Structure formats: C-alpha cells, structure tokens
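User: For this week's homework, look closely at the record that follows, marking any run of repeated tokens, and judge whether sequence predicts the tokens.
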Amino acid sequence: MMKELQGRVAVITGAGSGIGAALAHACSEAGMSVVLSDVEPAALDGVADEIRGRAGNVETLVLDVRDPAALEALAERAYAAYGACHLLVNNAGVIVFKPAAKLTLADWDWVLSVNLHGVIHGIAAFVPRMRAQPGEAHIVNTASINGLISMGGSGLAAYAASKFAVVAIAESLRVELERDQIGVSVVCPGGVATRITQSERNRPAEFRDGSEPKPLPDMAAAVDELGRSERILSPGEVAGRILDAVRANELYVITHPDYLDEVRERHRAIEAAFERAISRA
C-alpha cells in the first residue's frame, strides 16, 4: 500500500488534457516528480509549463500509446531522469459513437489499439522495471463505467469492449503483483468534463475510411445523447479520487455511484443464468 506520495515518481499517459492533466497536477502538488506523455505536443507542453511554473519536477515525451517502442522509450526516460516509477497511470483513451453493426474494422482497430493495446504496452514496458525496484508501487488503469455495464444501444460497443478488457487486466494484475508490493486500481468514471468526445481530432489517417461517426461537442452532449441525467465531474475531482484510491490500495475507483442499480441489474442477470444452469444440471 503506497500511502506516501511525497518524493515518489509518477508516469502518466494521456496527460495533455482531461483526467491525465488533472492527475499530473495533483501528483506534482503531492510532491511527486512526474513523467508525462501525450499524442498532442502543444497540450502536453502546456501542462508541463504549468507544473514547472510551480517549481515541479517534470519530464515529457510526445508519443502514441499504440506503439510499444514508444512506451519503452517512456520507461527509459523515467528511469534515466528519476531512477524509478512508483505510480504508473495508463490513461490515454479514445471513443467512437456508432451503433455496433455500423462500426467499421478501422473503428474497432483504432479504439482497441489505443484503449486496450495502449494499456498492454504500458504494462509490458513498466512492470518488469517496477518489480525490480525496491519498495511499494502502484498501477492505475483508466477504464470507464462502460467497463462494468455495456449500455446496449448507446453506440459505445467498441469503447465498452475496450474498457471491459481494461477492467479484466486490472483484476488479473492485482492478484499477480500483490507479492511484489505493487497495488493496482482501475478507474470506472461516468461523465467527466474532458475532450474524449472529440477524439476524432487524433484519429490517424490509417484508421479513416470515410465512415465518420456522429461528432459530439462535449461530455454533456454525450450524456444527453445517451438519455441520462448525471452530474458531469471535473477532471480534478476524479484525480483526487484516484489518489485517494492509490493511498488506500483500492481496486475499483467509482466516481458516479448513481450507476449502482445498473451494475446490480447486470449481476442479477448473470446470477439468474447460473441458477438456470444449476436447475438443468
């Protein structure tokens, strides 16, 4: 359990905006040195400049988490600069709003390459190094409430599939790394005021096929599109909750408790299926 953050080192992907940027500031304010990455150079530089303006220690690397070599380079930068990584945050993510039957292979490949493979690449690059260093450490994977409930018919099939996988990875890592004093948390937020609804701005040409999804201006519009009523949290609120979870070594980081009934409904349906199977055995 990593209760003390002062003097530690945090590495955060997707740190140019949203939850990643807020977490970069929160970690720095907690006395951590931060190593930040993002696919958008200007956004990343802006966050780093703000941290340096407060005399914080910060290193940056522009990269795309789809590239495993880029995550290796990030690990090398972190260990060369600070000699350790105590908190790894696999946070970079994108979203596509489109019905499942209309998703193209390009849509699937892009979402999974960032949201799922990006996490895998971070784990592959950092976990061996974190295991080899002394003392406790922690890994945070950013998933979504859509990693716990799929919201069928919402146009989030690709996103939900990637986030269910991220939750499963965190659950597995939690058990595997316990003996190494490495905690694991998975963040499952609902609506947060980030730019993820504008993910298309960063879709590489290789994943464009002329079948563009419906653009949504902000998270409030996305929540309204889903027919929901919920409070949109600030990235700073979520960042604070994440650091609380790190200090307490919590596996699931829940920011929107109003989804509890839907989570229970899903679990009840699964349990009912087991009961039917038992009755037929």
The longest helix spans residues 157-177.
